[in-house]
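Checklist before submission:
- one chain only
- standard amino acids only
- sequence pasted in full

Submission:
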Amino acid sequence: MNFQLIDQIGHTITIESPPQRIVSLVPSQTELLASLGLDKEVAGITKFCIHPDEWFRTKTRVGGTKNVNFAKIEEINPDLIICNKEENTESDVKALMEKYPVWTSDIHNLDDAMNMINSLGEMVNRLGEAQKLIQQIKSNFEKLSLNKPNPLRVVYVIWKNPFMAAGKDTFIDYMLSQCNFVNVCDEALRRYPELTVEQIKSLNPDRILLSSEPFPFSEKHLAEIKSAFPVSLPVLVDGEYFSWYGSRLLNAPQYLKSVIEKCIKV
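Returned file contents:
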């Protein structure tokens, strides 16, 4: 039976439902497909789709999120490809659309994420499982909203040499707001601005959040950051809980709560 749906960038796709050869080019949405129980249906993933680990070790890898291996995808001949406006390049998405059904997400907040989960659940014949997941996620975020601290000014750093940060109109910015953190990268800056040390100092953040991805900030970087920013205290955070918008959202509120507590204590 053919199934028609409009994706989050306004593109209409027609697929034979349920799809049997799915390629996911988005790590967080790959994890979602696993959570919905689609092991045999998912035929291809990217080299950055590290969850679940068994899929990372055994599924066919079709390149990265921004350098797709078209030959590998052609071998699979997918009946559905799942992309994301931010994570995948426009040129790759358009090229894939010419040959395959491509559904593209565009996520800025929790509502966008819930709509994505619902749509994918509908497409892959797992609507019941998707709606149950959505209700659990919403319930967990409602509990988080009951215990927000006084606002803290933060800069969320995603890269080093040069420093890059998450700006406004990003899913990371939305997740920061759920912690009652004020993102000091305002609308005047780009969505992912490059910042000098002096620029970060001028923004005067209370805390500098160092993400584990895409640059792998770790304990070894803390002394360097403390030296560069003696007034703004650095805090290491797990980037997956701030930027992955699939089933990882289920446990994100509990993790965000731990980040709030850490930021208060440092």
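Reviewer check: The two ends are 57 Å apart (CA to CA).
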